[in-house]
Fold:
Amino acid sequence: MQLADSPNERILVIFGSGRHGWLQHDFASDPTVRLRRLAEFAK
Structure:
């Protein structure tokens, strides 16, 4: 979370599908993080 120098900077992290539930749980309370599925970008 401390890698971005500004609010406009983006960081891409790719995890396997088995980790999606874990990520949702850990980042649910952080409004600065938005989880997206790969299918959203592969259109």
